[in-house]
Write a structure and sequence with these properties.
Layout (H helix, E strand, L loop, with lengths): L11 H9 L11 H28 L7 H14 L1
GO biological process, one term: DNA repair
Subcellular location: Nucleus
Organism: Astyanax mexicanus
Length: about 80
């Protein structure tokens, strides 16, 4: 999925480095499809976190999302993913 102007995207080289950080063998490489999939999964995770934080702020009658709202929804994210 290509990112449009209003949507942020993760850079492929950053995703590749992030993936390879956790490989035990230095010779192991991440394929292009794996990098694209990782970027898409991370994008879904970030969007879901933002939506949940926004809902938390609405529930507390706040007009903007603060770090406290994100901190409150983190346990939910960790259990769901």
């Amino acid at each position: 999925m290509a990112a449009n102007e209003s949507e942020a995207a993760f850079k492929k080289d950053m995703m590749g480095k992030l993936l390879t950080m956790f490989f035990k063998d230095e010779k192991t490489k991440a394929g292009n499809d794996a990098v694209i999939l990782m970027a898409e999964l991370l994008n879904v995770f970030v969007v879901e976190a933002a939506r949940r934080a926004m809902k938390q702020a609405e529930n507390e009658d706040c007009r903007r999302v603060d770090l406290e709202h994100v901190e409150k929804i983190l346990p939910q994210l960790l259990l769901d993913f």
